[in-house]
Amino acid sequence: MAELVVRAREIWKSYDGREDVLCGVDLDVAAAEAILVAGPNGSGKTTLLSILGGLDTPSRGSVSVGGREISRLKESALAKIRLHDVGFVFQTHNLIDDLTVEENVALPLRLAHRPADTRVAELLGAFDLRRLATRRPIEISVGEAQRVAVARALANGPKVILADEPTAALDGKGSAAVLAAFEVARTAFRAALVIASHDAAVPGLAAEAYHLENGRLSRRA
């Protein structure tokens, strides 16, 4: 049986005592597994990803990443989990405008005080970004920037990448290229994927599919 890299149990979330955003969500994510969480806007997808990645904490329930329970960790410990064990890709690439492509990919390694040159070269090659290495985000396309974001998310060898609507701002060609990059992340780098989308099926992504609506998560047939 494949190693579980994320395990969520009975996740509930409400803000300021208002209506629950998540209602008893359970989810297991195995190493190198791809999971799609689909649902309409406002269904709780972003909240779920934030809790799985330690950006937010559940009101009730537990989340483990790499076998370590993270739900009640202090912020300093969560920051280390986010730096080393979890990669994030958002709807917009969130690259730093003043850094080159190469420097953006290297940033998580620098923050972790790890050597960067060999790993960055490996990632730029894997995602066909070498020719863009010295360019800045404003000098490349949105789709290319999103591929850089995938490479950056892999810099420290995370167990899982959490992606929130990563193709929503892209056309068909750009979307296909980014989804291909995620497949490289999964197969070549052995990162598990949890991708949230308003689409019930993301073309080109072979994944276990779930539906989230009204705070409740269910597996799709």
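[next item in queue]
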Amino acid sequence: MSESECKKQLCPIKEVMDFLGQKWTLIILYNLSKVESMRFNEISENLGVSPRTLTKRLGELCDKGLVNKKKFNTIPPRVDYSLTEKGKSLVKSFSELNDWAIKNFI
């Protein structure tokens, strides 16, 4: 697909890269891929990301169907985040890219 064709139609790879290229997005997905689920504070502490940014990124990931948000009716409130099947399939894709980067880029 030529660049002009890509601009005329919303090029799928560009949309995906724009979304995944946002700061913290891939790192959040990668961290969630290593566990069954994580609580908000666990993610925040593991990554050192601000609560505001983490809230925004997790919301976007949930909206795209890549992350599940499970609320528990407890006091204090508890919310767990985990990858959806769609999210797991995406992680597989960039795991291969990570392997390539280690072998060829770093």
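[queue empty]
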